[in-house]
Amino acid sequence: MFDVGPLEIIAIMVVALLIFGPEKLPKLAADAARLLREVRRMATGARQDLKDSLGPELNEVSLQDLNPATFVKRNLLEPIDEEVSSVKKDINALDGTPSRDGGAADKSADQPERKRPTFDADTT
After folding, report:
1. How far apart are CA 41 and CA 23, in angstroms?
2. What spatial distance separates the first Cα and last Cα of the chain, rounded to whole Å?
3. Contact at 8 Å (CB) between 92 and 105?
4. pLDDT value at residue 52
5. Which of 29, 36, 73, 102 is exposed most, by the fewest CB atoms within 10 A?
6. What is the pLDDT of residues 81-119, one digit of tens each?
7. Are 100 and 94 in contact (CB under 8 A)?
């Protein structure tokens, strides 16, 4: 979650020691730990309340599925990727170009070899 290295942690501890002093620092650390435990307890309670209010028919739904980014990716982007790949396979089968999986599409013996036109994204 946080990308904090050992040098950053030492620097934070030195700054905290200079700001709060050695007398107040242990009490502040204990208060911070207590606050963190309370926040975790509240998050666990909220998660459990949400699962209880969803009912038994939605027990298999995880909270990660309710994340908007995950929802959009799963329900909007993945079906498009699947459809695009199936359209590409159909085009490759019509053109006679080999597919990405290594297999070649069926070619007629009398069909001449065709070159694909080049595509330049800057000109279109």
Report:
1. 29
2. 41
3. yes
4. 81
5. 102
6. 666 777 778 777 777 665 555 444 444 445 556 666 676
7. no
pTM: 0.41
- The band of 34, judged by pLDDT with boundaries at 50, 70 and 90, is very high
CA distance 104 to 76: 31
Q: Please name the amino acid found at residue 89.
A: K
What is d(CA 99, CA 93) in angstroms, rounded to the nearest whole number?
A: 8
Question: Using CA atoms, how far apart are residues 47 and 61, in angstroms rounded to an integer?
Answer: 12
With a CB cutoff of 8 Å and minimum separation 6, the contacts of 74 are 65
CA distance 97 to 95: 5
Joined together, the tokens standing for residue 62 give 């995880």
